[in-house]
Amino acid sequence: KAGVTQTPRYLIKTRGQQVTLSCSPISGHRSVSWYQQTPGQGLQFLFEYFSETQRNKGNFPGRFSGRQFSNSRSEMNVSTLELGDSALYLCASSLLETQYFGPGTRLLVL
Amino acid sequence: GENVEQHPSTLSVQEGDSAVIKCTYSDSASNYFPWYKQELGKGPQLIIDIRSNVGEKKDQRIAVTLNKTAKHFSLHITETQPEDSAVYFCAAIRIKAAGNKLTFGGGTRVLVKP
């Protein structure tokens, strides 16, 4: 079974721009969660989608948003990028409670 | 909300020795505790997990123990090998129908010296 895939793997943007990251979950998994990983803050939960509905949300500003499509694929969007948004963005899919992570998208904001 | 603390932040062991990483959690309602291994340039990979109705679980050289009373759980790696070098994360979650949110510890960088 194919694992979680994320595109793109690397991205460079400048302050003020917006970015969209994509995640394809493991086949059959309906829950997709997003996490931000930085050296200073570690792994932090952004949000979770299940059956196209946001089911959980972390403590991030409204510039961070997401959505899920009927095929369970998910996208997250960050608008008005700030330098501090530079991070590894990880997507995880789950059938029940066990979450399986993708390789991440490394975003660098200049 | 849940808070997970992980110690030590770095751990250096000689090949063949054992490594132990400890985590404490704050929410007594947490009932699922996974451990992830993250290698450079990769996403976290689940290596073992334990549910609150179990006190210990083993998988080859890896074991996890859970003490619900003290609210702490530990990862034990025996007979360490160079390929065990990575960053390890513990996490805790209260499984509920309204969604799951993993809270992670700060990570432990393990270096196995040959």
**Form type of chain A:** globular
Q: Care to count the β-strands of chain B?
A: 11
Task: Give the helix/strand class of chain A.
Answer: mainly beta
**What is the count of helical runs of chain B?**
0
The number of helical elements of chain A comes to 0
- The assigned structural class of chain B equals mainly beta
As a percent range, the share of strand residues of chain B is over 45%
Ends apart, CA distance between termini of chain B: 41 Å
Rg on CA atoms of chain B, Å: 14 Å
- The helical percent of chain B reads under 10%
Mean pLDDT of chain B: 95
Q: How much strand of chain A?
A: over 45%
**Assembly state (oligomeric):** heterodimer
Total beta-strand segments of chain A: 11
Largest sheet: number of strands, sense, barrel closure of chain B: 6 strands, mixed
N-to-C order of helices and strands of chain A: EEEEEEEEEEE
Query: Which chains have the largest interface?
Result: A-B, 24 and 23 residues
Q: What is the H/E order of chain B? A: EEEEEEEEEEE
**Poorly predicted runs of chain B:** none
Compute the separation of the termini of chain A in Å: 37 Å
Care to describe what's here?
The complex is a heterodimer of chains A (110) and B (114). Chain A has 110 residues and is mainly beta. Helices cover 0% and strands 55% of the residues of chain A. Chain A is built from no helices and eleven strands. Chain B starts with a strand and ends with a strand. Chain B is 0% helix and 54% strand. Chain B is globular and about 45 Å long. Chain B has strands at residues 4-7, 10-14, 19-25, 32-38, 45-51, 56-59, 62-67, 72-77, 86-92, 103-104, 108-113. Chain B is an all-beta fold and 114 residues long. In chain B, the strands form two sheets. In chain B, strands 2, 4, 5, 9, 10 and 11 form a six-stranded mixed beta sheet that branches. In chain B, strands 1-3-8-7-6 form a five-stranded antiparallel beta sheet, with no helix packed on it. At the A-B interface, strand 4, strand 5, strand 9 and strand 10 of A face strand 4, strand 5 and strand 10 of B.
